[in-house]
Amino acid sequence: MVPFQSIDYVNSFEAKLMLIDAGRGVGFIPRFVDVSQFENIVTREITPNYRPRRYYAIHKKNNSNPYTQILSDMLCRYYESKLWIPKVLF
Questions:
Q1: 8 Å CB contact between 51 and 33
Q2: 39 and 15 both lie in a single domain
Q3: Are residues 68 and 88 in the same domain?
Q4: pLDDT of residue 37
Q5: Do both 46 and 58 map to the same domain?
Q6: pLDDT given for residue 90 in this prediction
Q7: Backbone phi and psi for residue 69, each to the nearest 5 degrees, phi listed first
Q8: Which residues of the chain are modeled with pLDDT < 70?
Q9: Are 12 and 40 contained in the same domain?
Q10: Which residues, other chains included, contact 50 with Cβ-Cβ below 8 Å and sequence gap of 6+?
């Protein structure tokens, strides 16, 4: 288990890359993403190729953005039969 010092929330992929570039975290970045403008991001070939099989969509419970809730509801309906977390958490 990795002890986290903090969990930083950002709302764009570029901001995530900036945090990685600043040494605030690590990430698995798809090969098609251009990281050339981030001089501190080091890429490595992974053998076998990393193919993530789980993706997560998370939002704060008290988020007042209606589009966030709409997206969450749509994802929940679409993936309901495949979800590994109890629906109670939604």
A1: no
A2: yes
A3: yes
A4: 92
A5: no
A6: 47
A7: -65, -40
A8: 1-4, 46, 48-56, 82-90
A9: yes
A10: 28
Record the tokens describing residue 64, joined without a space. Answer: 């007042």
* Nearest C-alpha neighbor of 21 from the set 5, 3, 43, 1: 43
Output the CA–CA distances (angstroms, integers) from residue 66 to 12, 63, 73, in the order listed: 18, 8, 11
**Which H helix or E strand runs over 70?**
helix 66-79
Structural domain boundaries, residue 69: 54-90
From residue 48, alpha-carbon distances to 14, 29, 31, 41 in Å are 26, 15, 14, 21
* Domain total in the chain: 2
| Token pair 């080091």 in the structure block, residue | 42
Take residue 16 and report the two structure tokens written for it.
Answer: 């995530």
Token pair 């975290």 is found at 25
pLDDT in tens, 2-24: 566 777 778 888 888 998 899 88
22 within some domain: yes
13/42 same-domain check: yes
